[in-house]
Amino acid sequence: MTMLSHLLKEHQAKQNECKEWQRRQEAITPATSLTEVLVDHLNVGVAQANGIQRKLYHKVKTLQIQAAPSAKQTGRWIGTVENFH
């Protein structure tokens, strides 16, 4: 009888382990899906921010190029005014 009781306890313990493993797997699947959705959402925001950053960088470079001649002209005017005094 002791052997049968021991086998029954082992069997119940293994069944409990299987049930626990199954519960974990059932919890992991939705958690993984949620994580993927959140990461995808964040990636969209990051991609948009990177696009905006590239546009701003391009505009800054364009303004620097366009402002250079004005800065040179201003320097010449300042020199002319100083020489006039």
Keywords:
mainly alpha; 0% strand; 85 residues
Describe the overall structure.
The mean pLDDT is 92. The chain is an all-alpha fold and 85 residues long. It has 1 helix and no strands. The protein starts with a helix and ends with a helix. The longest helix is centred in the middle third of the chain and has 83 residues, at 2-84.
Assign a percent range to the helix content. Answer: over 70%
* Strands, count: 0
Radius of gyration, in angstroms, nearest whole number = 36 Å
How many helices in DSSP terms?
A: 1
* Strand-residue proportion: under 5%
Class based on secondary structure composition and strand pairing: mainly alpha
Question: Could you list the spans in which at least 5 consecutive residues all have pLDDT below 50?
Answer: none
Largest sheet: none
Question: What overall geometry do the principal axes of the alpha carbons give?
Answer: rod-shaped
**Average of per-residue pLDDT values:** 92
Order of helices and strands: H
Q: How far from one another are the termini?
A: 119 Å
